[in-house]
Amino acid sequence: MDQNDNRDPGGPGGKKAGRAGPRRGGAGPKAALNAAGKARLIEKARQIVYQTPPLRPEKLAACKEALEQGAYEIDSRKLANILIAELILKR
Prior knowledge:
The protein is an all-alpha fold.
């Protein structure tokens, strides 16, 4: 670039590429829809948490001990059937 050339190197004719015109403040329709979607997700998560049964410490301790001893076994068919049933029921 020549030192006498005082154009901005951002684009043709010294103009920078990007949005035309000033940026306006405020939330547009997309932001409002996004906020509404987030609110629905938060409410759904809250419902799931409230519907989830509390952990039973005695059951958890037994599982942890079995895992540590290498004695914890999972019936993969039973687990698969439960997962499939859950997926079908949620539709």
